[in-house]
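name: query_chain
kind: protein
chains: 1
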Amino acid sequence: MDDDRATVRLVDRLLADAVRRRASGIHLQPEADRIRVRLRIDGLLREAEAPPAALHGRIAARIKLLAGMDVAEQRLPQDGRLEARDGDGHRVQFRVASCPGVHGEKLVLRLIEQDAPTTLEALGLPDPARQALEAALDRPDGLILVTGPAGSGKTATLHAALRRLNTPERNICAVEDPVELDTPGVTHVAVNRRAGIDFARALRAFLRQDPDVIMVGEIRDAETAAIAVKAAQTGHLVLSTLHTRSAPGAVERLAQMGLPGHDLASSLSLVVAQRLVRRLCPTCRDATSSPVQPAAAEPPGDYARRGCPQCQGGYCGRRGVFQVMPLTRTVADAVLAGASAREIETRARADGIPDLHDAGWPLVEAGETSATELRRVTHEADSWPA
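structure:
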C-alpha cells in the first residue's frame, strides 16, 4: 500500500514538474540498473531526477492506467491519452506511447498543447508568407500541405487555418491520429485501426458528407495521397501534412508515391515547410557581442546568448520559421515537367521564395534567436550544398 501511494505521488509530481518546466514531452526509459528520465524542453532532451529503479513497473502501470491502456499487456506497443492537473490546478493532457524494450517498457508522454496559437497572426508568419497562405485558404478548392519533422508545430498551423475557415457557410471535416484539438463546428474523426478507420477510409466517407473543407492529419500512403488530390481537383479545399525536409521536397515525395505531375500541378495550391527555433532569453540576451561567426553568405547577427536562472542556456521558449511556397506559374511548370526537388527549389528562389534559413534570418537580426540556433534547426532542410 505504501508503494502504491508513493507511485501515485511520483507520477503526479513528474507530470506537474514537466508542465512547470515547460516540457513538451517526458521520456521514461528503463535501463539495467536505473530509470532514465528526460524532459524535452524547447526541443531538446534534458536529464531529470530519476525515481528508484524498483518502482518502474508500478510507475508504468500507473501511467498506462491513467491513459486507458491495457496494463497487463507489456509485449506490444500501445497508445493512450491521459488527463491530469498541474500545480495550479489547470487541466493538462498527454499522449502516451509505450514500447517494449529489453529492460522493460519505455514510455513517452507528449504534452498536448492547449495554449497553441489559434490564429495565423499568432503563428508569427511574416506578412508576405501569411498573405500567400490566406490567399490559398480563400480559394474554394486546392491542396495545401504543411511539412516538417515531428514536433515542428504542423498541427498548430493546420488548426489555425481551420479556425480561419470555420464559418457557418462551410462544412468542415477533419480526420487525425489522434484528435488533439477539438474545434467547435468541425466534424472530428479519430483514426481507429481496430475498427478499420484509417485516413483513406475516413477521406472516402467525408466525400459523401458534402464537405467544403477537408483536413487530413497526415498523408502517409499513396492511397490517401491520391484521394486527397482528387478531392482537391473536384471542388474541395484540402489541408494536410507531410513529412519532408522542405516545401519543394513535398512535391517530390508525392511524385514518389506515384502521383503524376499533371495531377500535382492542377491540385497543389501552396506548401508550407516549418521548424521551431529556440528564442533567445529576453532577460539575459547580449546585444553587444556575438559568440559565433556568421557564415560567409550571412550578415552578422546583433544578439548573443548568455544564460540565467529564467532560461535554459540562454534560450526560453520557441517560435516558428516558415518557408511558404505558392504554386506560381514557374513552379507549376517545373512540377508538371516532373522536376526534382532541387530544380523546384531553384525555380522558387527565382520567384523570390526564400528557403527556411533565409526565411528565419530576420529573427536573428531582430534578436529573437541566434545564428547558431537557426543553422542547427534548418541545416537538415538544406538538401544540397550551397
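note: The longest strand covers residues 268-280.
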